[in-house]
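User: I've been trying to design a sequence by hand for this structure and keep getting stuck. Would you show me what you'd pick, starting by listing the structure so we're on the same page?

Assistant: Good idea, let's start from the same input. This is the structure you sent:
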């Protein structure tokens, strides 16, 4: 682990957040899920794992704020209020808020009332609306797993719809996601080189075991200064996704979706697992 990270760099190594913190870097896993949406980890599981690993967390449950709210009550781990918001078309967006009440206001004014039969799947908010609405809230918006399979693949959607201007409202690109194949992550890195957005990364964890496998680092001492660092493109990403953890996460997703998810969601998870296997074994995504 290099002790002197540079802004804008992606380091493919297992994060040692204690060492990074001693060198002035604040580390967050910016993409995590709990059993409030499609994860198996409880909020207590997440907080315990983060405390032991020396990193902060953004709980980004799908279309949901309660996991973040519960986690914010703990006094040991810094929690960035967050949400992974599912669009009508399929691609998701990550929203990070400076205050918990802003997240709850966002859910109340935008998300609630636009949920469908699967509350953690697609909503009735179109991607264009989602991007425009972000301007009304004090938040940071990032594109998660841009080269995810099927309808969650944002570059493919933007190309089909000739809608690249939607990216004007986006602050950052998730260039390293522990649930994606290495080739899909490399594609995200190369895509962002063309876009010139800030970089973030996260485990996209659905079990406690996966937490902290990818972290975003900044020279910061609070949620506010950390999110400002993202906006100013003064971040670095460190991570080394573990194959076993990824498979456990996929299985957790399938288990948790089994009782309430739509067929569409289950199909996506199956395709995701299949493409993940192909990406690792054949060098494709």
């Amino acid at each position: 682990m290099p002790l002197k990270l540079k802004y804008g760099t992606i380091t493919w190594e297992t994060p040692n957040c204690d060492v990074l913190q001693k060198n002035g870097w604040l580390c967050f896993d910016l993409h995590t899920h709990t059993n409030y949406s499609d994860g198996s980890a409880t909020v207590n599981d997440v907080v315990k794992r983060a405390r032991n690993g020396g990193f902060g967390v953004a709980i980004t449950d799908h279309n949901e704020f309660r996991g973040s709210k519960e986690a914010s009550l703990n006094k040991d781990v810094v929690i960035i209020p967050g949400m992974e918001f599912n669009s009508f078309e399929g691609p998701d967006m990550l929203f990070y808020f400076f205050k918990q009440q802003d997240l709850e206001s966002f859910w109340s004014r935008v998300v609630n009332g636009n949920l469908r039969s699967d509350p953690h799947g697609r909503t009735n908010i179109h991607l264009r609306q989602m991007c425009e609405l972000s301007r009304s809230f004090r938040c940071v918006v990032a594109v998660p797993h841009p080269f995810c399979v099927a309808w969650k693949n944002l570059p493919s959607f933007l190309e089909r719809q000739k809608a690249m201007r939607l990216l004007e409202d986006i602050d950052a690109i998730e260039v390293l996601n522990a649930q994606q194949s290495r080739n899909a992550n490399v594609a995200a890195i190369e895509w962002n080189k063309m876009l010139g957005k800030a970089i973030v990364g996260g485990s996209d964890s659905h079990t406690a075991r996966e937490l902290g496998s990818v972290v975003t680092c900044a020279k910061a001492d609070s949620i506010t200064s950390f999110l400002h660092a993202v906006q100013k493109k003064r971040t670095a990403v460190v991570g080394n996704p573990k194959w076993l953890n990824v498979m456990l996460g996929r299985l957790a997703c399938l288990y948790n979706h089994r009782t309430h998810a739509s067929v569409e969601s289950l199909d996506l998870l199956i395709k995701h697992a299949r493409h993940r296997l192909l990406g690792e074994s054949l060098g494709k995504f």
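That's my pick for every position. To get oriented when you compare it with your attempt: The radius of gyration is 17 Å. Strands lie at 10-11, 26-32, 56-59, 79-86, 92-97, 139-143, 172-177, 198-202, 214-218, 236-239.
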